[in-house]
Amino acid sequence: MIAYLGLMIYLISSIDAHSEITKVSSEDECKIADLCVHDKVPMCAIDSCGEMRTFIDICDMHEFNCDSKKDFKQRPIHECWVTCKRGRSFKRAEFNDCSKNTKTRTVNLAQT
User: Hey, what's the signal peptide range on this chain (predicted)?
Assistant: First the structure.
């Protein structure tokens, strides 16, 4: 019982609500969003297409990813200070245009 209690204390103390998660499926995003507790700590995020957004908190990002099937990941807040206003997005120039890639893939799949 004491070992179990010690393990639980260790696991709880090692949780960091604002740590970066490397790869999360859209199904997992929805599960995380359902369990997440809003703390209203503003955060910056970027998706695989280079779109940057600010969110009210990390739970808001998971809800957005779940609802829109996006893959935003947390970034340091200073990366959004110049480029984003809360709830607005900004496209980083060094990323590919995902809308063009999606159309190309759709056409290629239709031709095969």
Answer: 1-17
